[in-house]
Structure formats: structure tokens, C-alpha cells
Design goal:
The complex is a heterotrimer. Chain A is mainly alpha-helical. Chain A contains seven helices and three strands; from the N terminus they run H-H-E-H-H-H-E-H-H-E. Chain C is flat. Classes of the chains: A mainly alpha, B alpha/beta, C mainly alpha.
Chain lengths: 125, 185, 209
């Protein structure tokens, strides 16, 4: 994944829709990687239900989510993480237009002081 | 009570049929096929629906097993978020001394399409190409239309809408059930 | 019991095993046998007889290879470690000790760390930059053992392999390609997941580092 080797990876949390999740275990294990505590976890789970219609708990096995749901979860994990600068790659490809619009609106809402960038494969740096 | 339906294939006309009925896909998810679905040679089908509506599950749990059970056919499936498949194709191409070594998904899919063409040219058979959220879908379609005109193409994409494709809609009825039907003209 | 205490106790047990069975009792066949039986019973009590048999079965090829090598040494009267000419009797006892030790060592690791779950490891009070190796290790272990079947499935989806009438050579190549794919996959996963985890540590845990 060349984008991870680029200078962007030093400055941004890179979230690529081709590799949305790292583990395939429980939601709690993935949240550990993003340093998301129990307070944020509740908010994340509520956002996920609101956007995808699927109820999750911290013990839910994330391998059972559909491809699009994994991308939604990746975006929410990034948004609720402490990362200040986040780059999303190819997410519009993986999401239906309605979900994409909801997630863009969510990034607008969480923006204060943080930077969210969006890139499609083939875009030049 | 969900009932499993059979599948039939009239290999004389090159159509693969999935009969109407309820198909339990996962423990807590069922697909309800409202009317019989027919996938013909030379046909072009777009499976469309929101995220989580069961398109990929339909492909992996219903369509693929039935296609693979048919005799004398080619089935090429390009998976969503191609990862393990990429390494499999890379290993195969390396063993067959392909040049250059496949580096990414784009090269791997081109390799597979060329392999399909080569196989078809040698031994013509009913062919099915299934693309699940594949990147560069437009270039793949152009290749298939040029070299594999009788191939049945089934694809899912939120971005690439081909007007000439027959749309098969996946409509969530509840979290545990999606209805599958052909979009009326 | 806290995760840290469990981990420390398991590590201490393993160190004690190494000191006694790998050093002090290395050439005591009876004690090596008792050690193997005791560890077998402990593993069987934890994972059942099937779990024990599954573990031992994986080691059987190595066991037979070692036995064959030591038998050969004995038949050829290869000199012992002190330089004196040694016969079948010496090498069979020498070999039996090492083979028992090999089996016991693997069982000891399985037994000691069977009391420490993955959740316990994640709960250890260590930095995420070190925990990364635990997570990555588990990911790669699972990738290694669960991907082969899927690889064979993807291979069956390559059009030129659907023609049928597979010769012995093509079936051999199929298996070889599957193993090569598994190797590519594990190396690829190690690189990709390692970079993804590093990226998350850098941007989500940076204040703690």
C-alpha cells in the first residue's frame, strides 16, 4: 500500500477503503488500535447504527460486517479517534451515495481544529 | 420457514437460473428472490442496493456455488477488496513465468481477464464474469466487450452505472431480510 | 487474577522448565519421560485429548526425522560430543532424550500460555508500540492457518485451471502455487498490517508515546 509509505502517512492517519479494518476480531480490539475509550465507544456505536442500521456492541465480531459496513466502521473509528489529521482514500467507491453524504456531514460536524482530506486512487499528490 | 430452492441451467441456451424463493444466507440473514432470476450468455447485469443489502452475500453464497457446480463453464470472480485473491493470482502468474510480476489489483485483474480470453479462444464455453465493487470496472467492461462478447457479466458498483445493464435490486426489508427483484422497465 | 500476574507466572514456569529439563535433567531419560507425560496430561486437561493429539501430530514429522538421524549416527558409529566413538546404544539414549525434550518444550509453551488469553495480553500494562507485536503475531498466526483453503478456492476461479483433466504435474504445480500464495500473503500481511498499525499508533497514541 504505497500511500502508507509516502510522506502523507507521517502527517495523516490514512484510512483506505481497500483495507478498512486491521483485525477481524471484536470491535473492542479494533478500537484499542485507535485509542478509543468507553465514552467515545458509545458515541461510535450510536453513529454506526444511525448510518448503517446495524446494531453493534464492543464484543461484536467485525468480520461479519459487509464490505461497505467495514468502510463505514473504519471512517467512524477514525473520526472518533484522537487523530488530528485524517486522509480517507477511495471511500466514495465503497459507499452508496446516501451513506457517503451522511459520513461527509459527520466529518463536517467533527471538524473543529481537525483536518479531513479525501482522495481517490489516481489523484496526484 | 425458509425453503432452499434448486437451480437449473439450460446450457443449450447458456442461461443460469435462480428460482424464486427464500434463501437463508447467514444465520440471521435471508434473501428473498421475488421472481426467477435468469443470467444469460451475453447478458449484462448490475446488482444494486445500499451497503449491507446482501449483494456480496448473494454472489458468494448463492450465485458462485451454483455457477461452479455447472459443468463446462468458465467462472471469473473479482472479489470486493481483493487482497488474498491478489496474492493467489500473483503466485499463479509467477509459477507460470508471467512477465511482469503482478504488483497490484489492476495488473491482477488484467491478467485474469487475459487468462479468460486465452482459455475461451482455446476451448469455447459458457463464461461468467462477476465483478464485486472492482476498481477500474469501465476498462474491464471494454475489454470483455471487445474480446468476450458472449460472456455473461454481473457486477456491483455504487459508482459505475451502465445504462444498458439489467438492474437487479437488493432492497432491505428489515435487518434480517432483503428482497431481490429485477427493476421493471 | 490480573493479566500481568498470569503472564509473569507463565513466563516463570517456562523458565523453570528450561532450567530443569534443558540443562539439569537433559540426560535423564526417565525424568524427560515423566515431564512429557505430565505436560501431556496438563494439556489434555485444558484442551482435551483431541487438542493434545493435534499438537503432537504436528510434531511427528520432526520427531521421526530426528529419530532417523540419531539411528543413522548409531549405525555409522559417529563420535559422541566428547569425541569418543559411540554406538547404537549411546545414540539411541542421546536421541531419545532430545526427542522427548523437543516434544516437552512445545507442550510446555502451549500449557504455560494456555492460561494467558489474548485478552490478558491486550490488558497488559505495556505500551501500544510493544503490544503491536502481540497483535501482529496473532494476526499472522491466524492468517497462516486459516487462509490455505481460501487460496485453493481462488485458484479454482482462475479460468485456465477450470479446463479439467489435471495431470500429476499440474496438480503438483497447483499445490506449489497455493503454498507460494500463502507465503506471499503472510509476508504481504506482515508488511501491510504492520504499516497500518504503525500509522494508527503514530496518530492516535502519540501523546502516550
Amino acid at each position: 500500500m504505497d500511500i502508507l509509505l509516502s510522506a502523507t502517512a507521517l502527517t495523516h492517519l490514512v484510512c483506505d477503503a481497500r483495507h478498512p479494518l486491521i483485525s477481524h476480531w471484536r470491535l473492542a480490539d479494533e478500537m484499542l488500535l485507535y485509542n478509543i475509550g468507553s465514552g467515545k465507544a458509545v458515541e461510535l456505536i450510536e453513529d454506526f447504527f444511525r448510518i448503517s442500521g446495524k446494531a453493534l456492541t464492543t464484543k461484536s465480531r467485525i468480520s461479519e460486517l459487509s464490505g461497505g459496513q467495514k468502510v463505514i466502521l473504519m471512517i467512524l473509528l477514525a473520526i472518533h479517534s484522537p487523530a488530528q489529521r485524517i486522509l480517507f482514500v477511495d471511500i466514495n467507491h465503497a459507499l452508496d451515495p446516501e451513506k457517503y453524504a451522511l459520513l461527509i456531514a459527520l466529518t463536517d460536524g467533527k471538524a473543529s481544529g481537525r483536518e479531513f482530506r479525501f482522495r481517490n486512487r489516481g489523484d496526484v499528490d | 420457514m425458509a425453503r432452499l430452492q434448486g437451480v437449473s441451467s439450460d446450457s443449450g441456451t447458456g442461461a443460469m437460473l435462480i428460482e424464486a424463493g427464500s434463501y437463508p444466507i447467514w444465520q440471521d440473514f435471508t434473501l428473498w428472490v421475488e421472481y426467477e432470476l435468469e443470467f444469460r450468455q451475453g447478458g449484462f447485469y448490475h446488482l444494486t442496493g445500499q451497503n449491507g443489502s446482501g449483494k456480496s452475500s448473494f454472489i458468494s453464497q448463492l450465485l458462485l456455488p451454483r455457477l461452479l457446480a455447472l459443468p463446462h463453464r468458465y467462472v471469473l470472480y473479482l472479489e470486493q477488496q481483493m487482497h488474498l485473491q491478489l496474492f493467489t493470482v500473483k503466485a499463479f502468474s509467477a509459477m507460470n513465468k508471467a512477465n511482469p510480476i503482478l504488483a497490484d489489483e489492476s495488473m491482477a485483474t488484467q491478467f485474469l481477464l487475459k487468462d479468460l480470453k486465452k482459455s475461451f479462444d482455446q476451448v469455447p464455453r459458457d463464461s461468467y464474469l462477476i465483478m464485486d465493487e472492482t476498481l477500474y470496472i469501465d476498462s474491464h467492461l471494454a475489454y470483455v466487450r471487445q474480446y468476450l462478447q458472449t460472456c455473461c457479466i454481473i457486477y456491483t458498483s455504487h459508482q459505475s452505472i451502465q445504462p444498458e445493464a439489467e438492474s437487479i435490486i437488493f432492497e432491505p426489508v428489515s435487518v434480517e431480510l432483503s428482497k431481490v427483484y429485477v427493476r421493471p422497465d | 487474577m490480573s493479566a500481568l500476574i498470569k503472564f509473569v507466572l507463565a513466563t516463570m514456569a517456562l523458565i523453570l522448565f528450561c532450567v530443569f529439563f534443558c540443562v539439569i535433567w537433559l540426560d535423564r531419560l526417565a525424568l524427560q519421560l515423566i515431564g512429557f507425560l505430565a505436560l501431556s496430561m496438563l494439556l489434555a486437561s485444558k484442551r482435551g485429548f483431541r487438542g493434545w493429539f493435534k499438537q503432537v501430530r504436528i510434531l511427528l514429522p520432526f520427531t521421526f526425522t530426528l529419530a532417523a538421524v540419531y539411528l543413522l549416527f548409531g549405525l555409522l558409529k559417529v563420535s559422541d560430543p566428547s569425541g569418543a566413538r559411540a554406538g547404537l546404544e549411546f545414540w539411541s539414549v542421546y536421541g531419545a532424550n532430545r526427542i522427548m525434550l523437543l516434544l516437552s518444550s512445545v507442550l510446555a509453551i502451549r500449557v504455560c500460555y494456555s492460561y494467558v488469553s489474548f485478552d490478558d495480553l491486550l490488558a497488559l500494562p505495556i505500551r501500544i508500540s510493544l503490544l503491536k507485536y502481540v497483535i501482529l503475531g496473532k494476526l499472522l498466526y491466524e492468517a497462516a492457518f486459516s487462509s490455505y483453503r481460501q487460496i485453493c478456492f481462488y485458484q479454482s476461479l482462475i479460468p485456465s485451471l477450470q479446463v479439467g483433466g489435471q495431470s500429476l504435474k499440474s496438480r503438483f504445480n497447483f499445490r506449489l502455487a497455493s503454498l507460494l500464495a500463502l507465503l506471499y500473503y503472510i509476508i504481504g500481511e506482515a508488511k501491510l498490517k504492520g504499516e497500518l498499525i504503525d500509522n494508527r499508533i503514530r496518530h492516535c497514541h502519540q501523546r502516550e508515546e
